[in-house]
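Reply to dn_fold:

You asked what the input looked like. This is it:
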Amino acid sequence: MEIVNMLKNKKVKVTEMPKRGAFLRKQWENNFANHLSNEEKKNICLWDNSEFCGYLWHLFSYKKRDCLKGEEAEKAFNNENKGSCYIFWEHTDHALILENAYILDSEDLEDEYDIYVVDKEFSWTYVKTHETLLCGPYFGRKDTKI
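and this is what came back:
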């Protein structure tokens, strides 16, 4: 993966987790979308179903959680303490653990889509969507309003 090489070149310690994407997506949902009922999650296509492809980031695009968007989201992410965090994608089970990721910023994710960065406590998240010109990127916190 190109992103792994780029991160290692920046002296970020990267541990690849080939089969942890589904687990991290569920943790993300449990921490950021736990205030929604299953019916509300279904209505915003948070999950894949027979009619639509689901995306966790619909939580933000449907305004179901406060967040920053666009350049404000990038700035917040760039200024966040990213000592240890996870990276995972919407539609793959591959995931990464990053250590010493302080230098990671939004420009490093320029070629990535439907990617989620979250700290190990799931207290904040940065999401870059495949619809970046229309939706996102987003930066949100679990417990505080932005």
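The mean pLDDT is 93.
Hope that clears it up.
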